Each structure stands twice: as C-alpha cells, then as structure tokens.
Amino acid sequence: xxxxxxxxxxxxxxxxxxxxxxxxxxxxxxxxxxxxxxxxxxxxxxxxxxxxxxxxxxxxxxxxxxxxxxxxxxxxxxxxxxxxxxxxxxxxxxxxxxxxxxxxxxxxxxxxxxxxxxxxxxxxxxxxxxxxxxxxxxxxxxxxxxxxxxxxxxxxxxxxxxxxxxxxxxxxxxxxxxxxxxxxxxxxxxxxxxxxxxxxxxxxxxxxxxxxxxxxxxxxxxxxxxxxxxxxxxxxxxxxxxxxxxxxxxxxxxxxxxxxxxxx
Length: 264
Prior knowledge:
The chain is an alpha+beta fold. It has helices spanning 13-16, 19-26, 100-103, 127-130, 141-154, 164-176, 184-187, 258-263, and strands at 35-45, 48-55, 63-70, 79-87, 124-126, 160-162, 199-201, 210-213, 224-226.
C-alpha cells in the first residue's frame, strides 16, 4: 500500500461515493491495466474530494492516480476538477533541480570553457572603491584617491578585486580542504608547515594563516596550505636509526678467469 497524505474533515458523501466516475476519468488518460485498486478518498475542502487509485504503469512504482471531484452548493451533479499522476512517499522521482553553476566542481572546466562571474557577485568589489587589495593598510585618503584617478586614466590595475566576504570564503574553503590541518596527511605529519623551509609566504591579510608549498616532492607542491598543515616531506624531518635503510654491502670482485673456470 502507498502511504497517502491525510486531510482533516469528513469528505462530502456524494463525492466520496463517486468512485466509478473517478475511475472512468482516469481511464480516459490511462490504459485499463495501468489503473489499480481504489486507495481512498480525502476531503480537500468544502464539496471538494480527491480519489486516489494505485498506478500500475510500467516505470512508475509508488505513484498513484489522483482525481479531484466537486459539486455546486445544493447541486447533485458531480463534476471533475482535475486528474493527475502523483508520486507517493516511495516513488522514484528525479532529484531536485540544481542550477548548472551550482553543480560545477573544481576540475570540471575543460580547455575553452567559460564561466562568467555575475556583476553583483558578493566575492568581488570594484577596485577603485578599495584599492588593489581591500585589506592593505589604510593610507591617506587623498593619496588613495589620487592613485585611483591615475589608475583609472591609464587603465591600470584590475577592474574588481576580492571583497572581505570573498577573502573569508576562500580562507574557510582552504582551511577545510586537503591543505588544512584536518586532512589525513596533516594529522600524521611530524611537524607543521610553519617551520618548513619549503613554505613560501604570501602577502596580505591571509599571510598569518596560509602559504604556498614549494617542495617538488610533496603532495601539496604549488598549492595553498595552512600554516598548521603538514606532511612527511617537511624540510627538517629526520629518520630514526631503525627507519634508515640498511647499508649496502661492499662490492664483490670476481677474480675468476676462463682458465680457472675450466679447472673447476
């Protein structure tokens, strides 16, 4: 049986008894073998009742036919309001639609693909409002205004730069990702990146939290890592004596000649 929604109130008796009319209405849009047993009738409102029939159509398990009937006040004629095929609780339905831009994941873009940024993207602000780095130390207001006017006149610099929200979103994403302190690689690391000689510092507000790995032998080479991240390729890592490879034995020189082999 299909679990159906319940409605408060008692169904109109004349409409509730019109099961045959409801079934014949469904048969106008479905084949006889696609309509199953009558599952019940529920009141949708005053003189408004919906009949439900099991759906036996191939490919629609858990669905049901819904026929809504109504009649005029003090009227005896029953009329059909609508007939539809609806999913039950156990029905197979398509997943909720997600816009293409929200479905994109890092690595989905192929050569030649374009992903335009909206004009009102909260991660970006016009550069002329905040300078090239919105978190640069504040300078004299007149000096900043003069720099902006010159940059505008010469067409220099970027049109937009990261907003505070954009920087915070990037920091949260990096810190929670593979380059953060909670990745399996970091949890098993002997030391953190902050003391590693291969860490390249960055400028700006994130310099106290992140850097770039420059160890060509490390998994994170060329990637942003948090200072409390870490891996086994730390510049100061040392192997314990028992972890060091066994020394190779001295080479053995073969002094046998062909004559010696014949004697043997």
